[in-house]
C-alpha cells in the first residue's frame, strides 16, 4: 500500500520495540517524520530515543485511552498511518494484576481505533493504515511434535496478558470488517535486542550474571520459544506497512527455537569467555563469578513455574515470506 508522505503516529515509541522501530523508520526513509505517543510507564524511557533529531521526531507524553488527545494528534500532524506498540506485556505482571492489562491493551486499543475511525473515515476520508503489533502468545501452547502456528490457527490464550492481546486483535479485525478501517496485524515471537528491559529473559540473564545474582529458571527450563531480533521485527513491520493487505494478519518469527536452558547456556558462555578475553571486566563487575575465575553457571536457580505456563511457541512465517517478501 502506498501512503502519501506524512507523519506517522507511533504509540509506545519510547519502549523497547517502539524505539527500535522509530530508528529503523527514520533511517530507511529520509522524508519520514514521527510523533511518538507514550505514557512513560516503567517500560518507556526517553533515553531510548536519545540522538534522534527533534525535527523529525515529536514526543508527546500521554495515554492512548485519551481519544481527544489522539484525535488532536491525527488532525494536527495530518497523520495517515499509525503503528500501535503501546501495551502492558509482562506475563508475570498480568498474573499478579490483570486490570492494567485489560485497560491498556483492550480499552487503549479500542480508543485508538475509535479515534482513527472518526478522523480517517468520517472527517478526512482517504488512504490510511492502522498497524497493530501483537504476539504469538494469543495462539496458546504447542507440543514439541506440533507444527508451528499459522495465521488460521485457533486463538487460545493462556495468560491474562495473552488474552488481552487476543481481544485487541479481534477489535482491530472488527473495525476493518465493520467500518472498513485499513488495518493490518502482525503477531511476533520473542524479541531481543537493544533497549530491552531486564525483566525479559536475555537482558535479565546478562545483568544478573554481571551482578552475581541468581539466574532464575522457570520449571524444568525446557519451555521452547522462537527468538527474533528486534531489527528483523522492525523490518517486517515496515514491509507490512508497505505491502500488507488490509484486514490480514501476518506471523513474524525468527525460526530460532530454543529452550530457556539453551538461552541461559549461550549467555553464560558468552559472559564467561568475555571475562577471559578482557581483563578490565573484572574491575568493572567484581561480583560476577567470571571475575573470580568461575563460571556464571553457578548462579542458576530453578524456581516454581508460573501458573498456566505455555510449553512451546513457534510460528509459521510462510505467509509473511510470500506476501511481504520477509526473510
Structure, explained:
With about 325 residues, the chain is of the alpha/beta class. It has a single domain (about 5-195, about 230-255, about 315-325), classed as 3-Layer(aba) Sandwich (Rossmann fold), CATH 3.40.50. Helices cover about 40% and strands about 15% of the residues. It is built from 10 helices and 12 strands. It has helices spanning about 15-30, 65-75, 90-95, 100-125, 160-180, 200-210, 230-245, 260-275, 280-285, 320-325; strands at about 5-10, 35-40, 55-60, 80-85, 130-135, 185-190, 190, 215-220, 225-230, 250, 255-260, 300-305. The strands form 3 sheets. Strands 3-2-1-4-5-6-10 form a 7-stranded parallel beta sheet, sandwiched between helices. Helix 5 links the parallel strand 5 (about 130-135) and strand 6. The two termini are about 20 Å apart.
